[in-house]
Amino acid sequence: MREIDGAGLVLDDALLQSTEPVIIRSLVSHWPLVRAGLESSQAADAYLRRFYQDATVVAMLGAPDIDGRFFYNQDLGGFNFRPVHVKLDTVLGELEARRNDARPPAIYVGSTTVDTCLPGLRAENDIGLGERDALMSVWIGNKTRIAAHYDLPDNLACVAVGHRRFTLFPPDQLSNLYVGPLDYTPAGQAISLVDFAQPDFGRFPKFATALEHAQVAELGPGDAIFIPSMWWHHVEALDPFNVLVNYWWRQSPEYMDTPTNALMHAIMSVRDLPPAQRKAWQELFRHYVFEAGEDTAAHIEPGARRILSPLDADATRALRAQLLKRMNR
């Protein structure tokens, strides 16, 4: 994995459009939040509370025996934690109260919009991303383990307080990661069923191959990592109090739908066709989607190409309405 010095670095398009992960050391070491965390967890807690305005967040709470691993229950029919709506200052208080416990309960507030829960924090702790309209989120908790998953947006993750270990896999390792259900997940994204702390190679033998392609990065306060879209990543928070701030953005227009919906629809409508028909549809998808180019519709007059022309917001809106109408018949 490429590693660069981020002190004083101005992030450019070459980095922010990379298709490989990049470690950026000391990118946000100048943030007041980072400096407070280096002083103590109590100082970081006090700094966060400066911006707290009675916001409620969703916290994930797990018993001590899950060892910080938020996951399914034994039969994958439920989860080993419970989500609760709670005031952020209550979470911070519980993290401080449990800081010296040998086996504390797992406490985790994930992917919470900064401007909503800590208004004003971004004014003092931010980085330039050019013209990207990035969503800034905060992640707060104790020693936790988040199962390997992918995200559609590109992701710049900045460690503000504590240390985190990232284990990344390229998208082509999907079949070696033993991914669980697509439509019933702990936090929205499908996850690997492998326990990275104790891999069961008898049950998941191909995970050994995935590990051959793994890229591991341990980040401290002020460090950041760029995770490209669709890269699988397993994240471990290593300290009793951890704060991560990340930025999400897509390289595609906002009006484009998420490809996850297309995948779900294809499972519903294509996957269980007879093999010959499924192969025919594979060719259609290759031609119109995966290898589409200027020649795909060159034989059709430009004014008659309709959805075979490049889509804009209006055309996408019309197509979505047409699809909804068809599906609701």
UniProtKB/TrEMBL annotation:
Domain of life, per lineage: Bacteria
All copies of domain JmjC, residue ranges: 93-264
InterPro entries reported in the protein's UniProt record: Cupin_8, JmjC_dom, RmlC-like_jellyroll
Protein name: Cupin-like domain-containing protein
